[in-house]
Amino acid sequence: MSDTPRSPFQTPTVDPDVMAAWSTYVERFENDPDFILSQVEQSVMITTFDRVVGMLDQVYNWGRRSSIWPLGFGLACCAIEMIATAAGRYDIDRFGAGLFRASPRQADLMIVSGTVTKKMVPQIVRLWNQMPEPRYMLSMGACATGGGPFKEGYNVVSGIDQFIPVDVYVPGCPPTPQALLHGLITLQRKIDGQSVRDVSWYRRGPVEEIPVPVLGADLIDLRQLPDIRARAGMAGDEPEAEAAAAAAGGDERAAAMAERLVIWRERAKAAGKL
Amino acid sequence: MTMTMDVRPAALAPADVAARAQARFPEAVTVDAHGALVVDRAALIDVATALRDDFGLAYLNNLTCVDRPDRFDVVYHACSMAGGAPVAIKVAADKANPVVPSAVSVWAGANFQEREVYDMFGVRFAGHPNLRRILMWDGFAGYPLRKDWKEAYFEGAQKPFNSRWPDGAFFFGEEKLTEWKSNAKYPRGYTATGVEKARPDNTVMVLDAEDLKHAPDIGSERLIVNMGPQHPSTHGVFQMQLVLDGETVVDLQPVMGYMHRNHEKIGERNLWLANMPYTDRLDYIAQIGNEWGYALTVEKMMGIEVPDRAEHIRIILAELNRIQSHFWGVTFLLNDIGAFFTPMMYAIEEREIILDLLEMTTGSRLMCNYMRFGGVAYDLPEAFLPLANTLVYDRLPRAIDEMDSFLTGSEIVDTRMRGVGVLPAEQAIGYSASGPVLRGSGVPYDVRKAEPYGIYDRFDWDVVSYPEGDIYARYMVRLGEMRESLKIVQQALKQLPGGPIMGGKKAWQIRVPEGEAYGRVENPRGELGYYCVSDGKANPYRYHVRSPCFINLTALGEMTKGHKVADTVAILGSIDIVLGEVDR
Predict the structure, then answer these.
(1) Closest alpha carbon to B292 in A267, B300, B191, A98
(2) Residue A30 in contact with partner chain B when CB distance is under 8 A
(3) Is residue B145 a part of any domain in this protein?
């Protein structure tokens, strides 16, 4: 090794000591079978299948959690805070979720940011059905979670979870940007806990599609159709019969509920509310 | 260009209008206890035309309905462009067969408002060009704002309820109480037959098939395009149905109601004060203005004086709010015309600092719930004044100038905004446009000057107005208004007096005397009005919000005709709608 600094453009000269070591190594490799075995054991890991999947999961989940593309989908007041979260001060892009997509077919995460109205539910369900798996649902704010301050309105649905399963609920009216970020981090932790072995989108069978509700005399959830038809044929609700049936079946809790309902009904009838 | 409007009283005071109208139509017009003209149904169009042409009431502020035990009262508020309070006009309709002549031929701005009354009360307007439901969908059962219509979660006619939890123990009874286990309510005996076969998209075409005739210009058929309700350019859940000839818009119909969350029905069951936080959620970018409008209306009915300090605090916060709202509106408009999100980043940075001020004063960034009848809830914190002073004297003027210099002369702004979406002044007045849309059409009408509320008459500021009537004019009005707002806040901060922040008698439950009032404020998006009727009980008997965004949309179809599809996005952006207020 010379002391003068070498120019990066010069061809590196080969150290004769290194050349000597290399030829010794090759010679041993060609002649000594035990040496070959020891070398293979050093480079190849022998482990169980579970551990391999576990390591794969880490990479798989790391990739997905670090690039969650939300759907650019604003409903109401919460959408303003969602935009504020995407802007400079809070910068949701620090968590890899800054690329808001205009099309549901490119999105991983639906943030339901605002009041879910009956008139809007069919569209939200259709958007959700259009999103490819893996997809996640974040319910932002009191309205999307349970109807919020507008729960008693005639055009308001008591939460998006009546129609679509929700992964993370973020409380607040509206949640602050910090709260939304916390919701996102919670979702990332949830993703971290998933495994390629049992996620639904790698399993056999069709992807479960949610029936799009229909706007009729009121919002009709198609899953309720048989119930609606049966009840339309009935003269009226029979909580007393329900209570008796529950008591006969030994379900004390259901019986207590039904008994309360009887009291409730009587009062409501007396007050002319029913 | 800035035009100053001279503050004249109206050519005729409301009482004079009433007296003269009564003299002219002795059989058809009477005056009721609240000073409103009660007009005979058959003579409505004659009287309205005379009011518009001869008494100067060219501008229809508000149109709504009150469900009385024996009749429906359709209520109109119209005012003169010279300023002054609006005149109330009432027409009674039968309970059994409610029909009233449509006022669209007199005031074109009645169009959507009459549709809303039809939707909510079932009052039909004879001669209306397109009388269909507007907020709910076609086929919805019943008319929800009628007093005998019950909500799915209906527990009592008014709050507070007697007891939410009988026997002291609670269970979630709502789902069980309602017939179908969700908050839906179907008519008795409804079997939902044929629901599965319903059209898959549930979209109701609001356009005529007539419009789809052969388009002669390009030798092809006309095309209907639905934009929204999930579309990045519609500023929320809003739908536009366009009839296109090639790429040119032949007709446009706005479709709304996707964010209709029953503000008025819930408001009529709430206590008077409990409506205050709900008003925040109307125009959720300009909350303080919403609260002020409601407080103003109820204060009018109760006759409360607001102390000086509270008036100053209100004006400071409302004008700061206007600045942040215009920051938002202007840069969202730039978003729509192609300057995607870069101007927004700059604007949101300033907006966050104003939101910091709101948060330190009221406790919340967006939903402030700060005003009370007779004042405000809390005094300003100590840190407020230094921060507000640096903001309005130093940071915000520079930010506005910076935005102005970056955007106003740029090619995007020039080519996409000038001459697009022109709304002439007469049409703007006819369509009841308000706010920057009206002032961008060269009508220097601002409620803060025309019928000053609060203490706006004590400050030195100008109404900003531009005559072109296009998107550019609306944009320039917003920029100018931000500077005028700064002037107002600077003066108010300088003069901020000490003293109490609440007037009136302290009361746990507010009692509003029997009566009615229409109060209005100039919100960033236009004239926000509240029409409240009290029957002396703990709840409002009628609570109606005159939403500027909703009524400004009446002119959208007219503005977009003949333009390209991409321009409709820009024109909608220049109206700057907020869906919480459009649909309420």
Answers:
(1) B300
(2) no
(3) no
